[in-house]
Amino acid sequence: MFRSDPLEDDLQDTTMRDAFAARASALLDTDPRLAVVLADISTDKFRDAAAAHPHRVVNVGIREQLLVGAAGGLALAGLRPIAHTYAPFLVERAFEQIKLDFEHQGTSGILVSVGASYDWAEGSFTHFSPRDVALFDTLPGWRVVVPGHAAEVPRLLDEAVRSDEGVYMRLSLRCNPAPHHTSGGGLTVLREGRNATVVAVGPVLDNVLAATSGFDVTVAYTNTPRPFDEHGLRQLAAGTGDTVVVVEPYLEGTSAWLVSRALADRPHRLLSIGVGREELRRYGTADEHERLHGLDPNGIRHRVRDFLDPITASR
Fold first, then answer.
1. Which residue in 284, 184, 293 sits closest to 228, CA to CA?
2. How far apart are CA 44 and CA 226, in angstroms?
3. In this structure, is residue 228 part of a structural domain?
């Protein structure tokens, strides 16, 4: 766990979206290349920034394809755009615009989503987006950051603004109780063991730590799953019998192809834990969806235990 700075201390009791809006607004004051494009979501959080920079904070209304298209146009004009709205509208609804207005044009920007896989469960399936990271895997070169805590957001956003890469930042109301530091987007080891390497992505970390308590496993954390730290995984997996578990807060198996590529020259075992592919067709709460998908500590514990001890699981 990293030692927080005063700003990060102030973010212990806030949301990732609030942390993002505050840092983006501050960056607008200092970076004339930066522009923020909104689609009626979070406009209240950018009210002061819009007043101070009316030509670089643009609200296009509930037109998500236009949101991404406008951001792509700003990138072509030499600006560094941040486009922001709910994940299913930003990524799934406007994927063609991401593909054409950024990827095909050879430009880049920062796409920042909220809602994640099922944050607003009351909003039902139209507001769910567990497939977003899988979609970005079809496009080359995009960095994907998945903070586990609001205090991780400012430095991740700073890095994204300084970069020339396309960056997708996936914000969530699901979070760990405390921030954790990852160096250069790599895997950070929080617990060492011999029987498996368990990789936790973003806000599922503390569920993983609770679930694996008492298990002889290595637990590693990342808030930057793309590019995936394949070198770090190879090193860790070598000490745990090339047995790997990946717990990710989006579609189950999204990172399986990267683990397989990293360990292609070595026999290995892999368990993927994430949001199930079957639609639950229920409203409920985010906590209930987490439990039903087996991403709560109890669900993760049972699946890891059965994976590590298949003889016991078959009884």
1. 184
2. 31
3. yes
CA–CA gap between residue 146 and residue 48 (Å, rounded): 27
Last residue of a domain, one of 141, 170, 199: 170
User: Within this chain, do residues 285 and 192 fall inside the same structural domain, yes or no?
Assistant: yes
Residues 184-226: pLDDT tens digits? Answer: 889 999 999 999 999 999 999 999 999 999 999 999 999 999 9
Query: What pLDDT is recorded for position 310?
Result: 72
CB 76 within 8 A of CB 108: no
* Same structural domain, 46 and 138: yes
235 in any annotated domain = yes
3-state secondary structure of 156: helix
Q: How confident is the model at residue 264 (pLDDT cuts 50, 70, 90)?
A: very high
Structure tokens at 297: 């500590």
Residues 75 and 101 in one domain: yes
Instruction: Output the domain CATH number for residue 291.
Output: 3.40.50.920
Chain position carrying tokens 């486009």? 83
Backbone dihedral angles phi then psi of residue 68, each to the nearest 5 degrees: -70, -40
For residues 16 and 295, what is the distance between their CA atoms, to the nearest angstrom?
20
Nearest to 274 by CA among 117, 89, 54: 117
Cα dihedral across residues 193, 198, 202, 206: positive or negative: negative
Domain of residue 97: give its range: 6-170
Question: In this structure, what token pair is assigned to residue 31?
Answer: 């970076």
Q: Which residues face 170 on adjacent strands?
A: 113
Q: How far apart are CA 233 and CA 268, in angstroms?
A: 12
Pair of tokens at residue 236: 């860790």
15 in the same domain as 152? yes
Cβ partners under 8 Å of residue 310, min gap 6: none
Spatial distance between the Cα atoms of 101 and 88, rounded to a whole number of angstroms? 18
Give this prediction's pTM: 0.94
- Quote the CA–CA distance of 248 and 200 in Å, as a whole number: 6
